[in-house]
Amino acid sequence: MKYTEAQLEQAFISLLETEGYQYIDGKQLQRSSNQEVLIKEDLRAFLLKRYPDLEEIELESLVNELAFQSASDLYESNKYICKLLADGFIFKRNNPSKKDLHIRFIDIKDISKNSFKIVNQLEIQGTELRIPDLILYINGIPVVVFEFKTAIEEEITIHDAYKQLTIRYRRDIPELMKYNVFCVISDGVNNKSGTVFSPYEFYYGWNKITGDEKKALTGIETTTSIVHGMLNQKRLVDIIHHFVLFPDTSKNELKILARYPQYYAANKLYQNILKHRKPEGDGKGGTYFGATGCGKSYTMLYLSRLLMRSTDFASPTIIIISDRTDLDDQLSKDFTNAKDFIGDENIINIESRADLRSRLRGRESGGVFLTTVQKFAEDAEILSDRTNIICISDEAHRSQVNLDLKVKIDDEKGVTKSYGFAKYLHDSLPNATYVGFTGTPIDKTLEVFGDVVDQYTMFESVNDEITVRLVYEGRAAKVNLDYNKVQEIENYYENAAAEGASEYHVEASQKAIAKMEVVLGDSDRIKAIAKDFIEHYEGRLQENATVAGKVMFVCASRGIAYKLYQELLALRPEWGDIKLADGLTDKEQKEIKPIERVKMIMTRNKDDEKELWDLLGNKDERKELDRQFKQIKSNFKIAIVVDMWLTGFDVPFLDTIYIDKPLQTHNLIQTISRVNRKYEGKDRGLVVDYIGIKKNLNKALGMFNNQTADDDFEDIAQAEVIVRDQLDLLRQFFHQFDSSAYFKGLPVERLQCLNKASELVLKTEESEKLFVNITKKLKSAYNLVSGSELFTYKEVEEIHFYFAVSSIVRKLTKGEAPDTAQMNAKVAKLVEEAIISEGVEEIFKLDDNKANTIDLFNDKFIEKISNLELPNTKIKILERLLKQTINDFKKVNKVKGQDFSERLQSIINRYNERSEGDILDYEGIQFDTAEQMIELIIKLRAEMDSFQDLGIDYEEKAFYDILDMICKQYGFEFDNDKMLELAREIKKIVDNTAKYPDWNDRDDIKAQLKMDIIVKLHEFGYPPITQEDVYKNVLEQAENFKKNR
């Protein structure tokens, strides 16, 4: 028995009932109309119970505060309503003698005072009638919408559920979605949540119930975790209250729903700070260990809101401390654009220690200040001795935990003492409570901030699809590196790290630089690296194996970086040309500047030669480079870096990093994490190693993730195995197919071979699915190895043959343009020629033209289709064009359009469901199917012209067909001439109604429309039993006309 969407829906209802939700069948819900989505009686009951002295007019005003919010700008209305649900608002009483009320629509303190209901299959009329699978209500407010899909049909996925919510429901029933806090999509195996504004990639699972489980749940178990975890009543109210973030301003409808690791971490840290705050506690608020890229900055924001909104802390002052010399720009932007969310207008970047002192002086509470740890070394005076100061350390490691005394003995200067930055920080704010956020905790982190309160490893982040898996490719052997000499440099780095020095201070050691320049900066080695890098990079570009061609190259020193830059330009001088990327819109041309392909990202040094000085630019110019690199279409593709951009620099579409620098522990994890961010079309991040970091990588992953590189990384060799496995499967698939003409034949023979291969794939629905799935896996793995030399020329040609066939199949079945992202330029051109050679492209040009539908079905057009030689190809084209044309016809005549849609589906089903015995007459079945489709075209053309024979216009014909259909449904006869006249009269009634632009949003006008139709039906003697059906169908058709005229 199939596990259907309805059964999944019932499973969710049963689970939610165990959480205390009351279930109501949507068909039984009492409403004034099916346009109403609030359960107003529940909302009124809650408000009266919480505020018993409300006057009736005040009660209605509060209900209308939600109900009358316009949904025309869905983002702004949703932002406003979500804020009302989270924070409430001040309500001025009708009677001036009564105190203002702080109104909350949800009781956040006593959960039992709220009404929790789930309603399934509720019909909601907007511009279209939509029926969400399940809606979760709190106090009559629809805060969560569920959409289910079955897991057993391969072609249907939760992505279809996502599109239903974020496209159809958003477009057609915004009145529901304006209240929506978040959505849940599920097929029973995959269960994810996100907002109506979130890209699909940012829908995530809720894979723990309490947050204390050692292992996250997976697969079908996540149905339980999302219900008992996220949708537990207390937790759901907490999420609505504290864990839905709208920035103060957003150009791209940003709404951020906390993921489960962020939710649990923020709450655990809050409780730990409460327990350890001074003066009663030790001031060690705890350490949060979270994988780089898992969203720690948002966890800080959620924690800051919890602290600032808490009565326990009496509006604390929060100081966010970064470990970088320059304040983290992204962290700063996130916080300064979240004043409303945190609940404090004073969120300020601190320029200096004196600036911080002046802002803290006389302040007893409030304020969020962002600064760097280095500013605390400027003097030793106490900044504040208050106890309600919370210091949150971003990337707490080394300089922020170094409390030790250092003694230096110099023959000239004598003995000098110094302390780490952390000592000065703690002396400046002696009674503060300190919290550490880090992706790489060490023992000293725990000494300063306290034990790890919660953790989320790189391994977990990848498994939860929050970050992408990384792939390691070693290429050190190609550049003649002496490993004994590299070990000397590594020893220096280890010593420097032990002393708590940042790379900036490592670079200050001229002795170390000189040694490094000799080994890593050898001219022959740099030439070899430049040559290999170009081959690797351009190979990946040619194979379209990279999202945007953006890469970062990490060098060991400024001098080496400059040598590499010069060598790259010597080999590719055009990379130094200032160019604007092709194909930019007018808007993009204002944002994206002409720029070189390769740039160095380093600060200037006072001893730099003039050319280097000019190349590096000043601070403002570096900020512009930052902005341009983050533009996906910018010509700036290759960033050569030493230290900058290795932490806190997020470019989601950056998918490749080249490393030629000895890196240890924390810095290594931070560096490779530049390529682990999610982005559409990005399956993996690639780490290319020119120096031999694998040993250190294993060590770092073992320290911070309890994993090894083999656990957290895919080696390039693993990708090679996948490619070879998929190649073997494809060879079996085509084992009886002669593809020699593609590889050895003349151009025309190659084109014919591609089209015949596509025809083989399309032989059955199963063969098509199998082929598409194999080539998808092949492409994903091949992207990772395309820059290597693991495959022979012959094998690469074979791979691209399969990609070419795949692209033609998608063109035929889905109407997509040839997918050049799946093939190199040479093969892409061949695919386009193959489509043209078969006569397919000319037909698709007609299709894409979207001209008058009837013109698509003239005799000449039908003849072109009939002349296509490949039968499976012909059937796929006919199917797709018929579907599109019938969908267009539905906009004009819904009844007849639906009739033709069912006829077409019947033909398709018969073709797809043919038995094995039918294979003997396979050609006959193909011929019959194509003939039936062409016959349907002719009938559709006749139907579209039929209004002329009846002496009515095409709109009147739509109403005539409604009347005729209902006659047949109810089994009664009605005079045809009278029916034609009645159709004309209904058209007049509808036209009279449509003179009001907002008629379909007004219940009074629709009520009048219904009455006018009933009266007219009575005048013509049309049976009364049909009145409701006639009205419903006429209303739908009238709304169709309104949308499509």
TrEMBL record:
Keywords noted in UniProt: ATP-binding, DNA-binding, Endonuclease, Hydrolase, Nuclease, Nucleotide-binding, Restriction system
Catalytic activity, per the record?
Endonucleolytic cleavage of DNA to give random double-stranded fragments with terminal 5'-phosphates, ATP is simultaneously hydrolyzed
Q: What is its EC number?
A: 3.1.21.3
Helicase ATP-binding domain location is 277-459
Q: Which GO terms describe its molecular function?
A: ATP binding; DNA binding; type I site-specific deoxyribonuclease activity
Tell whether Nuclease is among the UniProt keywords.
yes
Listed GO biological process terms = DNA restriction-modification system
List, alphabetically, the InterPro entries matched: Helicase_ATP-bd, HsdR_RecA-like_helicase_dom_2, P-loop_NTPase, Restrct_endonuc_type1_HsdR_N, Restrct_endonuc_typeI_HsdR, SWI2_SNF2, T1RH-like_C, Type-I_R_enzyme_R_subunit
Role description: Subunit R is required for both nuclease and ATPase activities, but not for modification.
Subunit structure and binding partners: The type I restriction/modification system is composed of three polypeptides R, M and S.
Q: Which family does it belong to?
A: Belongs to the HsdR family.
What name does the UniProt record give this protein?
Type I restriction enzyme endonuclease subunit
